[in-house]
Amino acid sequence: MSRRARVAECAAAGLLLILATACGSRLPEGDFGGRPDRAPAGGGAEPIRVGIVTSVTSPVGGDAFTGPRDGAKAYFDRLNARGGIGGRTVEVRTCDDGGSGVGNNECVHRLVDEDGVVALVATTSLDYAGASRVSRAGVPDIGGQPIGAAYDTYPHLYGIYGSLAPRNGTPGWDGKLYGGTEVYRYFKREQGARTAAVVSYNQSASAAYARLVTRGLRAEGYKVVTEQVDFALPNFRAAAADLKKQGADLVFDAIDTYGNSRLCEAMDEVGADVTAKVTNVQNWTSTVREDYKNAPRCRNTLWVTGASRSYEDTGHAAVREFRDGTKGLRTRSQWQVEGWAAAMWFTDAARSCARTGITRACVDRFMDSGRPYTADGLLAPVRHERLAEPPGTRRTCLSVARWEDARGWVGQGDLDDECFDVPQLPYDP
User: Fold this and answer.
1) Which of 146, 184, 145, 151 is nearest to 134 (CA)?
2) Domain containing 297 — which CATH number?
3) In this predicted model, what pLDDT tens digit does every residue of 237-265 receive, in sequence order?
4) Which residues, at least 6 apart from 212, have a Cβ–Cβ distance to it below 8 Å?
């Protein structure tokens, strides 16, 4: 992997990790009346057109951002096979923005202005430069991944994890976003962890995320060991040796998948045994054996947390439906689950408009209702509200799993039960 690619991946991972922990005022609907790019109100057999923007060919790599797209497309395929929405199929228009702001603006123009999509679904963009344009057009963007601050900035954008921010054109509250400490509370309460190491690069996005993790850990009473490695010539063995010496129970990171695999190899080499090497929902995939093939001991200490129900939880009806509908995909990932949930969210919104017509404005009214949404239990309750002041505390539920070579990702408690009232800490997007 080139240094440029690793810079991009590190930056993207840092942004995603930060914003996935974060918790709108709407423009008047009349401002968007009479536009020629509105979809027809329905009543015929004409398809309902939606768009999916994904950074497929970004510098991060071809598979990094495709999970939500694949999950959403699988859901719509299944929906269409069952008759669509009121007898109308959903026509999916996809666009690869190449991971650039220029490419993203081009995708937005094509899908919103030329193709006239009713909504965007499961957006996963490294640089969502066209977000303000989507908002101005009154196009609901449903269930996107918060890789940047757009879903906490603009009205009509509804990220997969929700937002309590005003969304008046400025990120969060006066430029500050807020994240909770539920992950650290979980490991303290359930695993008895007391010392945590945070490993980062000497690179801005990586270092910024590491500071946020460190602040959250300290707020939960942990002793924190910080390990920063040089991005160009990282000495992971030295970092692994020090975290072993310091007796770390947990290891958190602000580094890319490549760096994580090398860190794990170094931990195995020095004999650093930890309770958990904690990763994030982006790495919650079925490819762990391949990604960490040279670090078998560390690989089996991997834990992951998220806000969606594990794709391995086949005791749940909604997960079984997802698994059955994605049999054709060569790998499994939690981002596929979240893309599937985003498509379900749009479908429920569109069905609510069946009598009045499936338009952008009607779909947006459903999304902007303030009611929590769970996608039949696949998501922890997602809320989109607009609070004038940031919450001091918030109740947050977690999905938790650990990797075992013999069984894959094994759930550690139910999404509905692992809930915590935790403080919300500010950070800069």
Assistant:
1) 151
2) 3.40.50.2300
3) 999 999 999 999 999 998 887 899 999 99
4) 18, 21, 179, 425, 427
Q: How many CA atoms lie within 13 A of 375 on its CB side?
A: 29
Per residue in 204-229, is it b (16+ CB within 10 Å) or e — as a string? ebbebbbbbbbebbeebebebbbbbb
Is residue 38 scored above 60 in pLDDT? Answer: no
Do 286 and 360 lie in one domain? The reply is: no
Spatial distance between the Cα atoms of 333 and 311, rounded to a whole number of angstroms: 7
**Structural domain span for residue 45:** 3-179+318-367
Q: 272-300 pLDDT, tens per residue?
A: 999 999 988 988 999 999 999 999 999 99
412, part of any domain? yes
Instruction: Indicate if 302 and 352 belong to the same structural domain.
Output: no
Q: Which of 167, 157, 148 is nearest to 390 (CA)?
A: 167
Whether residues 284 and 404 fall in one domain: yes
Cβ neighbours of residue 62 closer than 8 Å, sequence gap 6 or more: 56
3-state secondary structure of 379: strand
If asked whether residues 236 and 95 sit together in one domain, one would say no
* Sheet (strand 48-54) strand order: 90-96, 48-54, 119-121, 141-144, 157-159
- For residues 291 and 331, is the Cβ–Cβ distance under 8 A? no
Produce one character per residue of 292-328: b if its CB has 16 or more CB atoms within 10 Å, e if not: beebebbbebbbbbbbbbbbbbeebebbebbeebbee
Q: In whole angstroms, what is the distance from residue 238 CA to residue 225 CA?
A: 13
Phi, psi (rounded to 5 degrees) for 25: -80, 140
Mean pLDDT of 301-313: 96
In a domain, residue 86? The reply is yes
Please, what is the average pLDDT of the chain? Answer: 90
- The 10s digit of each residue's pLDDT in 365-377 is 999 999 999 999 9
DSSP 232-293: SS--HHHHHHHHHHTT-SEEEEES-HHHHHHHHHHHHHHT---SEEEE-GGG-BTTHHHHTT
Q: Give the length of the chain.
A: 429
pTM: 0.89
